[in-house]
Automatic annotation (TrEMBL):
Name of this chain's protein: Cell division protein FtsN
Biased composition (Basic and acidic residues): 27-58
Species, as recorded: Curtobacterium luteum
Presence of the UniProt keyword Cell division in the record: yes
Keywords: Cell cycle, Cell division
Any single GO BP term: cell division
GO molecular function: peptidoglycan binding
Region feature (Disordered): 1-58
Domain SPOR stretches: 30-50
Pfam families in alphabetical order: SPOR
Top-level taxonomic group: Bacteria
Length: 58
């Protein structure tokens, strides 16, 4: 992945609950990358929904 592409993507910072464009914080604190800011804003909702779906499959 090119540096330009990485810089244009979005992450959700799990520690601060902030949305960041480009990798601004340590990797251990970030969820992503996401294509849009909105997707990153809903990272925790997506994780919760996936966990619930996987629990239902078990």
């Amino acid at each position: 992945m090119s540096d330009e592409r990485i810089e244009s993507q979005w992450w959700f910072n799990e520690k601060t609950h902030a949305v960041e464009q480009g990798p601004q914080s340590p990797q251990r604190d970030r969820i992503g990358p996401f294509e849009t800011r909105e997707e990153a804003q809903h990272a925790l909702d997506r994780i919760k929904a996936n966990n619930e779906r996987w629990d239902d499959e078990d």
